[in-house]
Amino acid sequence: MTASISDISQELYTALVDKKTLTPITTEFPNFSIDDAYEVSKQFLTKRINNGEQVIGKKIGVTSKVVQEMLGVHQPDFGFLTDAMQVKNGSQVDLASLIQPRAEAEIAFILSESLNGPGITRDDVISATSAIVPCFEIVDSRINNWEIKIQDTIADNASCGIFCLSEAYVDPKKFDLALLEATVFKNGNQISSGLGSAVQGHPAEAVAWLANTLGNYGISLDEGDIILSGSLVPLEPIISGDQFSMEIAGIGRCDLNFV
């Protein structure tokens, strides 16, 4: 690599601010490793924090087979959520604030206890979760045309854009999370549906993976964190005028309008 980790993180931050895209990092720097990418991600986050954002959770990306096949990325990654990324349910979102957004339907976990890997299990996750919540995540890539390898999306904070949570907070112990079904509507038409089992067999397994993976980097899942467990459905591109709704049967829904 001829550029430094600091240089790459600054380029990504500038792309975020200026709403532009970059040539894939892995094209520019073929020896760019996963560890390099996570270091870029941390420095990218630091720049957001220095600009006044606060970390409020973490997200898992590329967890389901359908999303892995769409993106050509075949292992999960993680990113950080900040308060600037969260929008209210029912919001009108200005597409000028995003670059090349795609919608995902997810189950979010609200933690009542910290989780420090390694060794975290699905049951540990359920015990440490005060509530699960229907969630729309709008992913957004700073890489040209979503031409990403795993290192590119890791460096780019797991392609985080914005997210919203339903007002429906429910006890995870009252449901079989693998059988929860999310249905997505675009402009009034159903476009996809998926079960909780799409995410590593069970959404809490994905959160356990996250806790254990973060533990290797000295990072914990903290009390009060919002954890996005991964999309249950294929990613759907968004254009101006689109209205999106998602519902998790028996729990609640999210709605976002894009202008």
Walk me through the structure.
- The chain has 259 residues and is α+β, with helices and mostly antiparallel strands.
- The chain has a single domain, classed as Fumarylacetoacetase-like, C-terminal domain (Fumarylacetoacetate hydrolase, domain 2), CATH 3.90.850.10.
- Helix content is 26%, strand content 29%.
- Strands 1, 2, 4, 5, 6, 9 and 10 form a seven-stranded mixed beta sheet that branches. A five-stranded mixed beta sheet has the order 3-12-11-7-8, with no helix packed on it.
- The chain is globular, with a radius of gyration of 17 Å.
- It starts with a helix and ends with a strand.
- The relative contact order is 0.22.
Short description:
With 259 residues, the protein is an alpha+beta fold.
Task: Using brief descriptors, characterize the structure shown.
single chain; 259 residues; alpha+beta; Fumarylacetoacetate hydrolase, domain 2; five-stranded mixed sheet; globular
Number of helices: 7
Low-confidence stretches: none
Q: Please identify the structural class as seen in this structure.
A: alpha+beta
Mean pLDDT: 93
Biggest sheet details: 7 strands, mixed
Layout of secondary structure:
Layout: H1 5-18, H2 25-28, H3 34-50, E1 55-61, H4 65-71, E2 77-82, E3 92-93, E4 102-111, H5 122-127, E5 129-139, H6 150-155, E6 162-165, E7 181-186, E8 189-195, H7 203-215, E9 226-231, E10 236-237, E11 243-248, E12 252-258
Parallel strand pairs: 1-9, 3-12
Antiparallel strand pairs: 1-2, 4-5, 4-9, 4-10, 5-6, 7-8, 7-11, 11-12
Helix pairs in contact: 1-3
